[in-house]
Amino acid sequence: MRSTLDIVAAIGLAMGGAFGLAGTFVESAPLRETLWTIDGVALVVATALL
Length: 50
Fold this sequence. Notes:
single chain, 86% helix
């Protein structure tokens, strides 16, 4: 059985990948910055939990 922290870490990694990819294709600089900020936070939290 997976622990809750493993599930949260997996969700964080998925969010980081999705928001990072979305930020790559966005034309608007402020929106890109927001998406990449969410991406970075999600990846750092997921890595810390792992």
